[in-house]
Predict the structure of Type II secretion system protein.
Amino acid sequence: MKKGNTLVEVIISLAIILMAFTIVSQIIIISAKAVNNRKLREEAERVAYAIENEAKYNYKFSDLDEEISFKYTNDILDKLITQPLMSLERGNDISLKRKEIKLKDKIYLYSITIKDNNGGVLAEREFIKSYWMEKK
């Protein structure tokens, strides 16, 4: 009976080690996905901020009347440095639209939404464009 007990103990020990290894590998995979997701969201926030500043200071109210949509690419920040906002490739990933108008003060509220490939929201941002930001 001693050999049988030892065999059972070895099998149970191996099963426990295998479960521990599985749990550790799952934790590593989940944390890697979380880090990747965080990087995507940070990049999207930078893109939204760049689009906000471009729209605020380099375009007139009339240029931003209707909803404008752009395609989100990996090199969009580089393109924003070298190209005007309106020359970016059109798509459904990034939307810039006017939400509210205060005509008396000539203040406009805009929103930027950046979506990922699955339709989930990576970044949302609202900003105000006032009359003094109007490009002359």
